[in-house]
Amino acid sequence: MDKFVITIARQYGSGGRTVGQMLAKELGVEYYDKDLIIKASEESGINLDLFAGADEKSKSFFNRFKKKNYGGDVLPPSHKNFNSEENLFNYQAKIIRDLAERESCIIIGRAADYILKDRDDVISVFVHAPKDFLMEQAAKKHAFDPAELERYIAHVDKERAEYYRTHTGREWTDARNYDLCLDSSKLGFDKCVEEIIAYMNVRLH
Fold it and tell me: Average pLDDT for consecutive 10-residue bins of the chain (205 residues)?
């Protein structure tokens, strides 16, 4: 199989990260998640804490109502908006584009499906699940009471949706953005991996 990139967007608690890790192991390729912001910080020279603070979040209240479709250009250090949320996204997007050009890999979140939408070697996946399953999986990581846990899941997914909308002008949960939408509660993680690989075999020959 030729070079490929699989992007995975995911609801919190759906196991999208787990699916991505399993898929990377099965295919023998690299898995990129939070290390993307480390790479972006190293390349730009911008403090890692700024990237971490904006990671899959839209910090500015006003940005939530703007649709600033990603254009791809990064700003130089001399620019007054060098540390802006938009430029942080653009540097991270540059890292994602460079990785896609260089190697086969799995990329988690961070609007990678949109950033790479014009590439023929990219498969975009959205992993989702019903609330009960999200709660069950999230409870394995957080000792919150049920009401707190439900609010936390809703908060994380709202931030991801606003981040995606801010930088792409699209709705994060719109199935038209993705090649595959998989319900992990019905398939299980192993079957999600199998379905993605089966689609790859058809799509990428």
Answer: 91 97 97 90 83 72 50 63 77 93 96 95 98 96 92 96 93 97 98 97 87
Residue 19 lies in a domain: yes
- Return the pLDDT at 62: 42
Tally of CB atoms within 10 A around 191: 13
Number of domains in the chain: 1
The enclosing domain of 79 has a CATH number of: 3.40.50.300
Pairing verdict, β 30-32 and 5-10: unpaired
Record the tokens describing residue 28, joined without a space: 């023998």
Distance CA 92, CA 70 (A): 11
pLDDT of residue 59: 60
Q: 74 is in which domain, residue-wise?
A: 5-198
